[in-house]
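hiii, so i know i said id send this last week but things got crazy w the move. better late than never?? heres the sequnce for the chain we talked about at the cafe, plus the structure i predicted for it. fair warning i was half asleep when i ran it
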Amino acid sequence: MKKVSVIIPVYKVEKYVAATIQSVLAQTYENFELLIIDDGSPDKSIEICQQFTDNRIKIIRQENRGVAAARNLGIRHAQGEYLAFLDADDLWVPEKLEKHVEHLNNSPAVGVSFCRSCFIDEAGKPLGIYQITKLKEITPLDLLCRTPIGNGSVPVIRRQVFEDIAFQDNLYGVVENFYFDDDRQLHPSEDVELWLRITMKTKWLTEGIPEALTLYRVNSQGFSAQLVKKLSSWETMLEKARVYVPPTSMAELEKIAMAYQLRHLARRAVTLEAGSTAVEFAQRAVSTHWRILLEEPHRTLITLAAAYFLLLMPRTLYHQIQSVALKIAGASQKRRIQQEESQKNSRGLQVS
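okay and structure toks below
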């Protein structure tokens, strides 16, 4: 059985980290190490982590340098052939690692295996909606526009992938290998920058499995600043991508990528009930690349409608309409996941 290194950066997550660790310890695939990276957390998060006595857990400390630096430190210490990442406020279903290990074992050309996500609220209650993404034939355009690897808690990656994209730098007084770009201005878009760099600079494929194996927590704290910061970090990411994406391709991708990111931020603002922010981002998305209305009319028009409804409707009426819409969308998404999972299992039976 191949060993998996699970890497959890920890910073000010005392409310959630115990449940996150427990979701790892409950995995049906048991050959793993759990590397908890203390990113200089000032609260009781690490005290909570220390209460777990499982000998697979290791706590590694660094000064506060951000999530990219914490992940890089985890990668340097990892002993597994596969590396899995989990944010300290998200959760995994018990079969998460088992299914990814099976996927990577059976798909030698795949370097990055990811899954879909179920959204949960701050209390851990399922919201009934899912992150539905493209699973195969992932292109740079997909990564920049639709972000199939939807969050930092879904990927499981071969160690060889990191060896293929490693670079050296001296940021903290010693020359070290880096994998995620450790530029604080890039956060929180360092994930997409890494996926794009892997796609552009290596032979490895990125491929998903249909199940929703990650529970992604929607946290409303400080959402306005987070959305603005996300947009700024996206601009930084595009600037960095110009180094390794051919200029002719980048010129075409950049405007499209910005429009799709603005639409994503508008949808995020709707989820967080920030009406004026949602309308602003939705309008900017269309003005940046109006063809988004033709390329994905349903998703774009729904985003515009939701943003304006949120801004203009009485909140009680909006919540009633939202509740019905979420139930319909969630049921449709769940059916799609079940259908694709059934098709996957059928193909597996035919092959065997």
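btw The mean pLDDT is 93. thought thatd interest u
miss u guys!!
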